[in-house]
Design a protein that fits this description.
Layout (H helix, E strand, L loop, with lengths): L6 H40 L2 H34 L2 H35 L1 H4 L1 H30 L4 E3 L5 E3 L3 H5 L4 H30 L4 H35 L1 H8 L11 E8 L4 E8 L2 H7 L20 H30 L7 H9 L3 H17 L2 E3 L3 E2 L9 H31 L37 H10 L1
Keywords: Cell membrane, Electron transport, Heme, Iron, Membrane, Metal-binding, Transmembrane, Transmembrane helix, Transport
Organism: Erythrobacter neustonensis
Protein name: Cytochrome D ubiquinol oxidase subunit I
Length: 484
């Protein structure tokens, strides 16, 4: 049975599965690292222990999400060498250095300060610990910078030369490769998406505990901060998405045609198709609900501006329209739902009822996973819309795969599915378990074992005076004294 499967399709499914699973965690940890930095900064500035309690509450969740993101990301390099060896060979001179920069800057920065952030508050002092938290937050951003530069170069390749052996080689300037035409737009759009993903998770947790006890000051604080983020960042994200779409129209017009469902050209203004069923064989969107000429107004800022359709693109260069069409609408729909919740919270805040609106709180709980759905839909739009190319316009996906038989890819894909759902399923369950507990005064942070690290040589520390019981940190006692 496995021999009848397509090895290329299986390789694409495997990469899509693992990278989708992986991106859930960075999309959360990028925003959560910045949120932790804000909480600790507010604690240092105001001295209010509620910020320290929330910092420690979310630090435990960040540690687990960060670890799962690192572990799931390792699989990406594995697949480059097994399923996509031709791509690695041809694009390695360009992709390899950029990935190395990510390790040498972001990964080392995060690894160097993560331990201090998790365990060092009582050892290095407040200011140095805050600096470590800032470095971890910066590291998550720098990591996103390099990874998105790589992906953007694959979307809009510039600054390269083609060698005699068919490899893509860097040209005169690396800056042309790093800051390729789509990179600034993709970076802004993706990082703000991560912030919104975190904001709606934090808001959902706060709303969940407000529904149980609306007097919980910790739940009030986190819900208020999350709703400020939703109200302010969501409109900015919609604007950034529009700018990103205009850039995509310029450099990847076929992707925009698929997103809009424009099988045919419209010389006198293109309609905005809200919903419908794309039919790639008949080259039409069936049962289309559309607004005349609005697509031309959005994309060209002119109601009568002509819009080219997929009839101008050869069939073998046409992306899978149904997938791109619907993933784009899911992303946009979730974005406007986020905007609605943000505006609703502003209305409640102005009326002084932000913590006394159970329907808003229920909506916030429902929207908790919305950020993950939106970023996944956005990446499906980006990656499937690039097809049939792995490097847009210059290297086809079919020409980038390793010469493997289908059974080999199928077995590894099955193994990934089983392991991922088992390991990361338990991790996600534990995170939700932590979230289900309300934050409280004197919240404990990440705890080390009483015996310290395992040592292979040297002196092993003796047992503590009170085994099994964590001692309060000096900063915790100080925060309790300040509240008193």
């Amino acid at each position: 049975m496995l021999e009848n499967l397509d090895a290329l399709l299986l390789a694409r499914i495997q990469f899509a599965f693992t990278v989708s699973f992986h991106f859930f965690f960075p999309a959360f940890s990028i925003g959560l690292a910045s949120f932790l930095a804000v909480l600790e900064g507010l604690w240092l500035k105001t001295g209010k222990s509620v910020y320290l309690d929330l910092f420690r509450y979310w630090l435990k969740i960040f540690a687990i999400a960060f670890a799962m993101g690192v572990v799931s990301g390792i699989v990406m390099s594995y697949q480059f060498g097994t399923n996509w060896s031709v791509f690695s060979d041809k694009a390695g001179p360009v992709i390899g250095p950029l990935m190395a920069y990510e390790v040498l800057t972001a990964f080392f920065l995060e690894a160097g300060f993560l331990g201090v952030m998790l365990f060092g508050m009582e050892k290095v002092g407040k200011k140095l610990h805050f600096a470590a938290t800032l470095m971890v937050a910066l590291g998550t951003f720098v990591s996103a910078f390099w990874i998105l530069s790589v992906n953007s170069w694959m979307q809009t390749p510039t600054g390269y030369l083609v060698g005699a052996n068919g490899q893509f080689l860097p040209g005169d300037s690396w800056w042309d490769i790093v800051f390729n035409p789509s990179f600034p737009y993709r970076l802004v759009h993706t990082v703000m998406a991560a912030y919104l993903t975190t904001a709606f998770v934090v808001g959902a947790v706060g709303a969940w505990h407000l529904l149980k006890d609306k007097s919980n000051q910790h739940a009030r604080k986190m819900f208020s901060m999350a709703m400020w983020m939703a109200a302010i960042v969501t409109p900015a994200q919609i604007f950034a998405g529009d700018m990103h779409g205009l850039n995509t129209l310029e450099y990847q017009p076929a992707k925009v045609m698929a997103m809009e469902g424009h099988y045919q050209s419209h010389p006198d203004g293109a309609p905005l198709i809200l919903f419908g069923i794309p039919d790639s064989e008949a080259k039409t969107v069936r049962y289309a609900i559309e607004i005349p000429k609005l697509s031309s107004l959005i994309l060209k800022h002119d109601l009568d501006a002509p819009m080219a359709g997929l009839d101008t693109i050869p069939d073998d260069r046409e992306p899978p329209v149904p997938v791109v069409f619907w993933s784009f609408r899911i992303m946009v729909g979730i974005g406007f739902a986020m905007l609605g919740v943000g505006l609703w919270s502003l209305w409640g805040r102005v009326r002084g009822r932000l913590y006394d609106m159970p329907w808003l709180h229920r909506a916030a709980v429902l929207m908790g996973p919305s950020g993950f759905a939106a970023v996944l839909a956005g990446w499906i739009t980006t990656e499937v819309g690039r097809q049939p190319f792995v490097i847009y316009g210059v290297l086809r996906t079919a020409d980038a795969a390793s010469p493997l038989d289908a059974p080999a890819v199928a077995v590894s894909l099955l193994a990934f599915i089983l392991v991922y759902f088992a390991v990361f399923g338990v991790g996600v369950w534990y995170i939700t378990k932590l979230m289900s507990k309300p934050p409280h005064r004197g919240e404990e942070g990440v705890e080390r074992g009483d015996d310290g690290p395992i040592r292979t040589a040297g002196i092993t520390p003796g047992p503590t005076q009170n085994p099994g019981k964590a001692q309060p940190l000096p900063t915790e006692r100080q925060g309790q004294e300040e509240d008193a």
